[in-house]
From TrEMBL:
<dbReference type="InterPro" id="IPR050923">
    <property type="entry name" value="Cell_Proc_Reg/RNA_Proc"/>
</dbReference>
<dbReference type="Pfam" id="PF00498">
    <property type="entry name" value="FHA"/>
</dbReference>
<protein>
    <recommendedName>
        <fullName>FHA domain-containing protein</fullName>
    </recommendedName>
</protein>
<dbReference type="InterPro" id="IPR022128">
    <property type="entry name" value="FhaA_N"/>
</dbReference>
<feature type="compositionally biased region" description="Basic and acidic residues">
    <location>
        <begin position="226"/>
        <end position="239"/>
    </location>
</feature>
<dbReference type="InterPro" id="IPR000253">
    <property type="entry name" value="FHA_dom"/>
</dbReference>
<feature type="domain" description="FHA">
    <location>
        <begin position="146"/>
        <end position="195"/>
    </location>
</feature>
<dbReference type="Pfam" id="PF12401">
    <property type="entry name" value="FhaA_N"/>
</dbReference>
<dbReference type="InterPro" id="IPR008984">
    <property type="entry name" value="SMAD_FHA_dom_sf"/>
</dbReference>
<feature type="region of interest" description="Disordered">
    <location>
        <begin position="224"/>
        <end position="247"/>
    </location>
</feature>
<dbReference type="InterPro" id="IPR042287">
    <property type="entry name" value="FhaA_N_sf"/>
</dbReference>
<keyword id="KW-0597">Phosphoprotein</keyword>
């Protein structure tokens, strides 16, 4: 399976269900991922035998009508795009100078269905942001415990009759995550197998009733940071502080 096929499979999660109705015509999300992949491959700069630096800040321009439809997906689409950029870079053993930023912008000069990507290398710190993707919605995980369930007291409320009021919890200590069933009636599954408590790896899938919950860790630029643009030609001997993609 080619890399573009992998991108297409990943984007299916972002356009399932209600999202699919948004994309009957005009620009498709998978076309954005293909454009981002081409931009990364085209701008890859060899800085040493073992290091290839690629852009980490992207401005994705599209017609206003396309932008309105993409914006209707909310943060879930951006998270999906960041995740897929991360995976593509990891598969090619590319490296970033800092966290990944993707900004969707309306451009009246472009016609419907056309996408243009501008990119930069921006040096900065990486904020590893854990999130739960539940039916196209993003829920950031705070340090400590995040309870999932049908009850109003849950941190992430599931509209699912197969879920208990306090069904399971995700624990995050700032670097690692675990999932723990809270004595639920119907049990919890991790990647298709029943689980009581286990470590959560990135892209793990928690199943509660009919709900599919994906755990992700996104490499993003910290909020409020003033990053510095990187010129690969002048950074050949200063790669020690560069972050590579997650393995």
């Amino acid at each position: 399976m080619g890399l573009l096929d992998n991108f297409e499979k990943g984007l299916e999660r972002a356009v399932n269900g209600a999202f699919a109705k948004t994309f009957r015509s005009g620009l498709q999300p998978v076309e954005i991922t293909a454009a981002l992949k081409r931009e990364i491959d085209t701008k890859a700069a060899v800085v040493s035998r073992d290091r290839v630096l690629v852009p980490n800040t992207f401005r994705v321009r599209m017609a206003p009508a396309d932008h309105d439809r993409m914006a209707s997906l909310g943060p879930a689409l951006i998270d999906e795009l960041v995740d897929l950029v991360q995976k593509h870079a990891a598969s090619q053993r590319f490296q970033f100078a800092g966290g990944i930023t993707i900004d969707l912008q309306a451009d009246p000069a472009l016609t419907v269905g056309i996408v243009q990507v501008d990119s930069r290398n921006v040096k900065g710190q990486v904020a590893w942001t854990p999130v739960l993707d539940v039916n196209g919605k993003r829920y950031p995980i705070l340090k400590g415990r995040t309870v999932l369930g049908r009850g109003s007291e849950a941190d992430v409320t599931l509209d699912d009759t197969g879920a208990s009021r306090r069904h399971a919890e995700v624990q995050w200590d700032g670097s690692r995550a675990r999932v723990r069933d809270l004595g639920s009636t119907n049990g919890t599954q991790l990647n298709g197998a029943p689980v009581k408590e286990a470590v959560l790896e990135p892209d793990s899938v928690i199943t509660i009733g009919r709900s599919r919950i994906v755990f992700r860790v996104l490499a993003q630029a910290p909020a409020g940071e003033s990053p510095r643009r990187v010129d690969p030609a002048t950074e050949r001997h200063d790669m020690g502080g560069f972050w590579g993609p997650a393995e």
